Predict the 3D structure of the following.
Amino acid sequence: MDLTYTPQQQAFRREVRAWLADNVPLEPLANCDTREGFEQHREWERKLFDNRLSMVMWPEELGGRGCDLVEWLIFEEEYYGAGAPMRVNQNGQLLLGPTLMEFGSEEQKKRFLPRMAASDDMWAQGWSEPNAGSDMANISSKAIRDGDHYVINGQKTWSTRALFADWIFGLFRSDPNSSRHHGLSYLVVPLNAEGVTIRPIKALNGQDAFAEIFFDNVRVPIDNRIGEEGQGWRVAMATAGFERGLLLRSPARFQHAARRLVELYKRHQTQADRDPTIRDAVCEVWAGAEAYALSAYYTVGRLSRGERIGAEASINKVVWSELDLRLNETAMRILGPRGELLAEAPAIGEDAGWLEGFLFAQAGPIYAGSNEIQRNIIAERMLGLPKS
């Protein structure tokens, strides 16, 4: 694996670093799980788009700048290194966007992708249902064909940021006589459509981070279907691959967090060294973040040679979700009782943010497909082990 950057890649890094140094907000944006904070983040992402830094790896005609995946990794390294705001349109840009590139019609790409890149449209996911969580094939929400429309009835739940988003994408059962992964269609639905009701679900920190969505005879045109009717499972598995793979959780996110963890340890070293295992845990997290980054570059090299990533994405998902858990658990061990202070508590000072990270990390082994399911995929599809 050659980790030497080309002159073009080095120039791109300098450009991104300089722009971020001049434009990253000096004060943190409001919490994105509030209306005020969500709109602040939307405006920040529009600013990125105006400077061709929103979706750098997308084609220029669709709102990007035509970068390769190595340049995307470079952008992510600089973005997190600059302490730039968290991106809130990831569901659209990093999950639906690549899905549309692969399965969408040319008209759908032109219709959705530029507005997605500009964050004019913000997106939520519509996978989970009350009886279909990790077992997504158990979906029961129906989308029945009526002329040139689908009529949708059912419920989706645990939909991140759906309270403030403009659209939702997800799976619906278009063949009422089908079962499991057959007879599903992949649809995009405007959340302001007649018959859509959205109710907030509070996260552990008390914020309205999630929502449940009810569909009561919601009509959407068949042009809102991605891929063929009844073939939604295939399309959704591609989206899940993007979610479990590199795009949703770039290695730079964890490298930056690992550096923050090292700084946290140094500030509290006298207290932390009372437990000698904490220093070992910090070193293991830092090494894990670097190993994940090297693995990402290896994967990008494979993709650049025309290879495809299949079940290996499940390994990736287990690695980053469990790395995030270890990272935040170690931070809480360093902080001790102070770690229970919310970010707005005056006494927390420069140690703010770790509690929120710890609470969010608990969901990592669940979303994007539970790690138990991912281990089954690894065992059956990669190791050839029999089904239990």
